[in-house]
Write a structure and sequence with these properties.
There is one protein chain. Helices cover 44% and strands 34% of the residues. It is of the alpha+beta class. The chain has one domain. The protein has a four-stranded antiparallel β-sheet with strand order 1-2-3-4. Helix 1 packs antiparallel against helix 3 (104-115).
Length: 116
């Protein structure tokens, strides 16, 4: 098990990384914690070897992306409901992007991803 810890925007970010072998190669697994709260998990299967800049990079990025995707889906639902929209048109998409810039947790996840 390997831990990666760092601070982003005043939040304590921690990845708990593990690997295990299987009959096809090996798997990297990670769990993302922010301020001690579990946020996301991810797995990556490898058949030969990785081409990462450092060990567990891909799986950690995947965990952050998964968390961001979930948060954006939630924000979209809320945005559509608050504005009583049925469809997200091109014009509304730009409005939604601006809305997402105001969501602190999405911005935190983007900052974590950039740090990886």
């Amino acid at each position: 098990m390997e831990l990666k810890k760092f601070d982003v925007n005043g939040k304590q970010v921690e990845f708990v990384n593990q690997w295990r072998g299987n009959r096809s190669g090996f798997v990297h697994e990670t769990t993302l914690f922010i301020d001690g709260r579990q946020i996301a998990e991810a797995k990556c299967q490898y058949y030969n070897r990785t081409w990462e800049s450092y060990t567990y990079q891909t799986v950690m990025k995947r965990a952050v992306s998964n968390a961001e995707d979930e948060e954006i889906a939630y924000a979209k639902e809320k945005f559509m409901r608050e504005n009583q929209y049925k469809k997200l048109t091109a014009e509304r998409r730009a409005e939604f992007e601006e809305y997402c810039k105001q969501v602190e947790f999405i911005q935190l996840l983007r900052a974590i991803y950039a740090k990886l």
